[in-house]
Amino acid sequence: MSQIDYFFATLSPYCYLAGTRLEEVAQKHGATINYKPFDVISAFARTGGTPLKDRHISRTEYRAQELQRQAKKLGMPFNLQPAHWPTNGAPAAYAFIAAQNAGGGDLGQLAQVITRSVWADEKNVAEDDVIRACLTEAGFDPKLADSGLLEGAETYARNLEEAVERGVFGAPFYIVGDQRFWGQDRIADIDLHLAGEL
């Protein structure tokens, strides 16, 4: 059985635009997904990337156009300038890790609900009540927002180190065996790879 290591960021618009397509591909091929929330901004600093605020205007303008095109193509609601971005993505990541450890819900849905909260629902995923609502919607105990914070912080930090060691430089980033795929627009390539066609 194949395993997909999915490095994602709770604040990434591209992780939001990934929707549940990865989960659909994994189910199609009987693959498992190992979710690894990490601090993508810290990864930028260590892998040659540039935070949005420091990018040349040509890059920020292109990003704005491309995000809106991708959202339209995918039929997903999208707000290019959400009310609560940037914010602290760590609390939502810690809650995700607590849910991952506890089980009982749908991790793919949780990842989607968290990112949707930022990019479509105008919610601040640094706030406990928003995190609890995300957990509940994905079938997890909302009290997980208040538990395992130390373990969540440690796992989040380990995920960053693993990401850098394994050549991850953005989000979403997927690793299948020795193959790396960057971006929500590469999910179709993962599908082909798992089918033995790529």
Can you tell me about this structure?
The protein is built from 9 helices and 4 strands; from the N terminus they run βααβααααααββα. Strands 2-1-3-4 form a 4-stranded mixed beta sheet. The chain is 51% helix and 10% strand. With 198 residues, it is an alpha+beta fold. The protein has helices at residues 13-17, 21-29, 40-47, 57-74, 90-102, 107-119, 128-137, 149-165, 187-194, and strands spanning 3-8, 32-37, 173-176, 179-182. The chain has one domain: Glutaredoxin (3-Layer(aba) Sandwich). The protein is globular and about 40 Å long.
Comma- or semicolon-separated keywords:
Glutaredoxin, globular, alpha+beta, 9 helices, 198 residues, four-stranded mixed β-sheet, 51% helix
Summarize the SSE layout with pairings:
Layout: E1 3-8, H1 13-17, H2 21-29, E2 32-37, H3 40-47, H4 57-74, H5 90-102, H6 107-119, H7 128-137, H8 149-165, E3 173-176, E4 179-182, H9 187-194
Parallel strand pairs: 1-2
Antiparallel strand pairs: 1-3, 3-4
Which strand order spans the largest sheet, edge to edge or round the barrel? 2-1-3-4
Count the helices. How many?
9
Structural class: alpha+beta
CATH structural class: Alpha Beta
Radius of gyration: 16 Å
Number of domains: 1
Q: What's the β-strand tally?
A: 4
Helix content: 40-55%
CATH superfamily, by name, is: Glutaredoxin
Order of helical and strand elements:
EHHEHHHHHHEEH
Offer a concise description of the structure.
It is built from 9 helices and 4 strands. Helix content is 51%, strand content 10%.
